[in-house]
Amino acid sequence: MVPAAPRLLAGIVAAAAALLLLLVAPSAAELTRVEHPPKTEGSLAILAVGDWGRKGQFNQTLVAQQMGVVGEKLDIDFVISTGDNIYDDGIANTSDPLFKECFTNIYTAQSLQTPWYIVLGNHDYTGNALAQQDPAIREVDSRYLNLAKSFIVNSGIADFFLVDTSPFYLKYWNSSKYDWRNVSPRDTYIENLLKDLDDALVQSEAPWKIVVGHHPISSGCEHGNTTELQELLRPILEARGVDMYVNGHDHCLQHISSRNSPVQFMTSGGGSKAWAGKFKTTSDKIEFIYDGQGFMSMKLSNTEAHLVFYDVAGNVLHTYDSTKSEEEEEEEEEEEDVD
Questions:
Q1: Residue limits of the Calcineurin-like phosphoesterase domain (predicted)?
Q2: How confident is the prediction for the chain on average, in pLDDT?
C-alpha cells in the first residue's frame, strides 16, 4: 500500500501528466485525445460515477467514502464521471464555491486524487457549461478534466469515447435555459460529432472500446430509453464493435444486454439522490437493476473485463465478466480495415 502523502503527490502528477499528453492540435475531423497509459502493465482499473454534485447531501459523501475504499483496493488509474456533476444548475463561473462544495471537499480519499474524466449532463448545461471546460477550473482542482465537450481517453488496453449527449435531446434544445454556446447550430454539431466518433471507432486499435455519455440509450429506470440516441448513436456503436456504453442521468445502477448486438449498457448514475421505485420498460434484456445509490468499478486486461456495481455501503450488488481472445481482436481489426 502506498503511503498517503506519496499517493496524493502521485495523483497530482498523474493529472498533470494527462494534460501534458493531450494532443495539441487535433484536426477539424478529429475528437480531442488524451493519452493515459495504465500504471500497471497489462491491467487498467477505473471507477465510474454520475449524478453526484449535491454538496455531500443525499448520501453523496457516503458514496464518495466507499469509492475511496474500492479505489484503494484496485489502485485505480482514473475516474469517469457520467455527468450532472453540479446540481441544480452547474456552476456560474470557475470561482463558484459550488465546485469545491460538490467536488473537491467531497472526494477527499487518497485513491481518488487521480484524474477524473468528465462529460457534461443536462444540469451542467443549465449553468455556465463552458466554465467546466475552462483551464482555470483545473487551477482550482487539477483532477477535473472536462477537456472538451467530447473527447477520447486512450489507455492502450481500452479507448474511452466521451460523448456530449445533451444536444441530442430536442426538448432541451427548445428551452432557453440551456447554455448552447459552441454547440449551435444543433444539426451540424450532431452530424459532425457522429462522424468524428465513427471515424475514431474505426481507427481504434484498443482491445476494448467503451463509449461514455450522460444519457442512457437503453434503460429500465425512470427516464427510460432515449429516442434520439436509439436512432442516431446506437447504430454506430453496434456497427463499430463497441463493447460497452456507460451512462448516468437515470439515478440508479443497471446492466442491460442488447438483444441484437454484443453491446452492454451500463448505468452508473447513483452518486447521490436516487429514485426508488421508478422503473420503465425496455426491449433489451435487463441483467441487473438497482434503484439506489452507488457506483461501478471496471478492471480490464487485453482479454478480460471485470465490472462490479456497489451500493452506498460498499456491498457488491452485481458483477459482469467478459472475455475476448487475441483471435477475436485480430478479426475485429481485419473487419475495420475492410470498412
A1: 46-252
A2: 91
